[in-house]
Every structure is written in structure tokens, then in C-alpha cells.
Amino acid sequence: MPRQILLLLTDLEIGGTPTVVRELALRLHREPGMAVEVACLGGRGMVAAQLAAAGIGVTALNASSPTDLRVLGQLILLIRRQGFDAVLSFLLHANAAAAIAKLFCRGVRFFQSIQTTQPEPRWHWQLQRLIHVAAEKIIVPSDSVAAAAQGRSGIPCRKIAVIPNALALQDFAPSPVPMQQTRPFPIGFIGRLDPVKRLGDLLTAVEQLDGLVHLHIFGDGPQRPALVAQSQRPGLRGRVTFHGVIPYPQPALAQIGMLVLPSLHEGFGLVLIEAMAAGVPVVARNVPGVRDVVRDGQTGLLADPADPTALAAAISRLLSDRTLCQRLIESARRDVAQRFTWNRVLPMYLSILRQ
Hints:
The strands form 2 sheets. This protein has a 7-stranded parallel β-sheet with strand order 3-2-1-4-5-6-7, with helices on both faces. A 6-stranded parallel β-sheet has the order 10-9-8-11-12-13, sandwiched between helices. Helix content is 39%, strand content 17%. Helix 1 (16-29) runs parallel beside helix 2 (46-53) and helix 4 packs parallel to helix 5 (122-131). It has 355 residues and is α/β, with parallel strands linked by helices. The protein has 2 domains: 3-166 and 340-353, Glycogen Phosphorylase B (Rossmann fold), CATH 3.40.50.2000; 169-339, Glycogen Phosphorylase B (Rossmann fold).
């Protein structure tokens, strides 16, 4: 009998964690002795359709709000009915639901994953302190998340497994755009338009660059109206394009010559390794999570997080130094090949799930 694995997360909209779950599910699905399904607390999103197209069972529990307790009964019934051997949950709300489900699902192994270093809201970390006892292991993507989990939720070091996010390098063709001399030069952001991403700072940096770059924003989220309004300022008008949600990053990466991630809090930053794999140089902020992935001056440039001007200076530096740009591109792709491919990462998951 194959091992029956359930991957549980909050939603299946396009985003970093749903992408990680999708790619993990696809690989577990092909692994001998493994059967995998995916469930989310919310409704079906674009990632659910991608999983279903690959033949992976998907269940949306359709919670009406984060406090919709009805989904707990549905989750318990799902685990019992499908006879899952193990449940791996991602992010706080899914971790909490799985911790409650464990009380009613004897013989099932439970694992949790924390994917962020964001300190607020504090109650998230306080709740995680209570519920981590329901999991055999807490899986995190970086040493920075491990430190946050220990310091803010009191999770013992021995209980934490650091398993980085990963990709298939062959899925990312090297882009010719970064070495082109186009003006204004196309730079981009890929991700959800949430306040934590600090897109307003990036728009300010673009304004300071005075026409040297054109910013392409791929994604959607609650901050879009405010960002669109900011982009209409005289110094930004005509220099920002909003493309909306994209199902996969490759088409976006093929249009830009530099990826900029202005977040002040990241657990890992999956889009960073996607850009690095595609030969698109990265500029980000020197904050926990990001610096676990990007080596400043070696595989990308990290800016001081205190001031949007530092972002503008890093972007300008890459635009003016083509030798540095080429060196970062080559080093970054090598680094992804060595540290962040599924050939290296999948065995880490399997060693835990097959114990």
C-alpha cells in the first residue's frame, strides 16, 4: 500500500506557498510508494486547477472566514475517509486546523510548516507556540524562519527541519533581456500585492531613477488600488505597468531584465530563485529570509532596508555595471543548481514522510 499524504494549506491562489505546495505535490505524485492529495481551507483557486490537471486530488473546504469552524469537521472526515497516513500543513491557519484534527485522527502523523519571518501579528506566533506540540516536525524553508520559530514560538531546535524551497532548473531558460541596453530598462516585481511586500517603496525608487527604468508588476492583491494611485504621480506616470496574476513566472521573467523584491519580511522568497534560475539578476533588501537565499555581491544585490533610496542605488548600480551584472547572473544560476533544486530537496521531504 502506498503512503497516503495530505498537503493542507490556507488557499490555492497564486502565491509563494501555494506554488511550493503545487511543486511538492507533483513530485510526490510521481514518487513510487507515495499517493498525495491537496486540501485548502478556502475556495478553489488557480493552483487547484493546475493540480487537478495533473491528476492530483484537490479538496476545497470553502471556509467563509478564518473563524469558520465548520471546516474542522470537514477536514476530520476527509482525513478519516481517505485514510491518510500523514498530514503536512502549511501556514498558521492550516497548522491550527490540523492540530485540532489530530485530536480526532489517531494513528495519523502530523507535520507543520512555517514559511514567514514576519513578526506581526504577534498572536500568530503565540498561537503557533500552542499548536506546534501537535506536530512531529516543524518544517521551515530557511535558517531565518527557524530562528523566528524558536525565538517567538518557543519551538525546540531539535523539532525543526530546515528544507529550502526548490525548483526544476530545466524549467527556466536563461533570459537574454538582462544584458540588453534597452532604455527605459524593464525591471519587475512578481508576487502578491500585499503591504508586507512594500511595493510603495519600489515605486518611490523608480521615481528617483527619473526615467531610467520601466517597472512591470505581475500579481494582484489588496494593495493594488493604492499602488495604481501612486503610479499616477507625475514622476511615475507611464513608467509602471500592472499585468495582473500570472499562472507561472517564466513568461514574466522573459520580459524583464532585473527582478526587484522590496519586502521587509520574507521566509525565503521563492521568486528570487526563480529569477536566478532564469538568468535575471535580483535586487532585494538585506533582511532575514532573503539573505538566506541571496549572497550580497555574489548572487545578487541586497539593499539597506531603511530607505527606498538604497533600492534605487542598487538598481542603478546594476544598470551601469554590465560586468557585475554578468557575474551575478552566472554565479546565481550555479548557486541555485547547487542548493535549491528538487534533486536535492525532495529527498529531505521523503526522509521525514517515509520514517
